[in-house]
């Protein structure tokens, strides 16, 4: 005959080891999940700290750029006018080139020299909390011939070179007078020519006024290489 007490003892002997194994397995699973969740949390925390640091740096950079742009307002006056729609400065010296020529006439040189000195003085006087580098773009332009003149189509491509040479002559003139922007560590100067094209051109009767120079100053805040 089976002994009920003995059978119950055997069942208990089987149950408790199985129960302990189950609880141990559950504990291990929970421990693994906890470690994994903690790692995800720390990784996320690190990402958030990095993102916050980047946002703070961008905010500081934006603040510096805003201050610089306000300081650049000192350019406005006799020699420069700010064009808000295109975010650039127009050189107000009414330079007039002979058709198809790139030589700067002597009559305009004194005013151009003063304009160059004003530009350099303003850039060197701006104080910032972080290092700043200025990308200065000097752009030459050209005026179209009257509507219907075949030279507009024939010279469309060559005017890019013409307007570039005009800008180059301005930079060479400044350099001859001691205004060598290339010697300024925080100024990178680029010259260009837009020919018959470009944004913000005068239209209609003022087409001839497109024989001019545009100055664009782009501040770059941060560590300088």
TrEMBL record:
The chain crosses the membrane at residues 20-41. InterPro entries: OmpA-like_sf. The keyword Coiled coil applies. Residues 45-78 form a coiled coil. Keywords: Coiled coil, Membrane, Transmembrane, Transmembrane helix. This is OmpA-like domain-containing protein. It comes from Hymenobacter terrestris. The lineage of its organism: Bacteria, Pseudomonadati, Bacteroidota, Cytophagia, Cytophagales.
